[in-house]
């Protein structure tokens, strides 16, 4: 069995954008699934899926990221695999492929998180170049339509039963330069271990305060089902912080996509033998 789930961010999304966002997450899930179907790793699959959405200006990651209050783009991203290897980058200016740089941090094994403009020195070493200044800024971001844009993420399980998670974002619109959200923080925006993987979206400060994806993993380890674990953790976040969030997660038994916000585009592709199940929708809202 292999499976991949992709999300395009929790938020209030106007009806006219539903089809475009569903098509975006579907294309990302297809990219990840192609890798899993060819026997590739869960880690390669989640990175490939997230790269598709970083290049899609409809989503708040890479090209099309929301802007800082200085009018610039600074991106955050992380990747984690079931062996609890982790790599992340935070608040890196003009970085269009943040998930690829996060992956390079993971592979290098020296550090887990590189932040700010100095991360470009490492990027250069691994052959990643900055986008031309201003080229990641879209008209939509300039108009600050942040309420309709969301972080992106993917979780997967490969044919060998390994899990991985990846998350990438421009953060929140109008943030201070240098602000770091949940997406590059292990256990907040991204988590994977031997039993599950999860990727979160929503109010980064709230997600960090409750260590959302780690909370789900711990509840699962204590015997909850994946859906129970995700819904209790989201409910805890709402009660503790008053914030908003959404999450996708996968374990040996299945997948879940759940959010507190009105919508969160989600696509999944599950292969069980010859049977392939493809689903895309605007997510399940936790009441
Ligand atoms: N969680 C992201 C952040 O706070 C934003 C989002 O999910 O839309 O950086």
Give an overview of the whole structure:
By secondary structure, the protein is an alpha+beta fold. It has one domain. The chain contains eight helices and 13 strands. The chain has helices at residues 18-37, 42-54, 98-108, 119-125, 139-142, 204-210, 212-221, 226-241; strands at 2-7, 74-81, 86-93, 113-115, 152-157, 163-169, 190-192, 196-202, 245-251, 255-259, 266-272, 275-281, 284-285. The strands form two sheets. The chain has an eight-stranded mixed sheet. The protein has a five-stranded mixed sheet with strand order 7-8-9-10-13. Strand 7 (190-192) and strand 8 (196-202) form a beta hairpin. Helix 2 packs antiparallel against helix 3, helix 6 crosses helix 8 and helix 7 (212-221) packs across helix 8. The longest helix has 20 residues, at 18-37. Bound molecules: aspartic acid.
Q: Quick one: how many beta strands? A: 13
User: In terms of structural class, how would the helical and strand content be classed?
Assistant: alpha+beta
Number of helices: 8
Strand order of the largest sheet: 4-3-2-6-5-1-11-12
Q: Strand count, sense and closure of the main sheet?
A: 8 strands, mixed
Ligand catalogue: aspartic acid
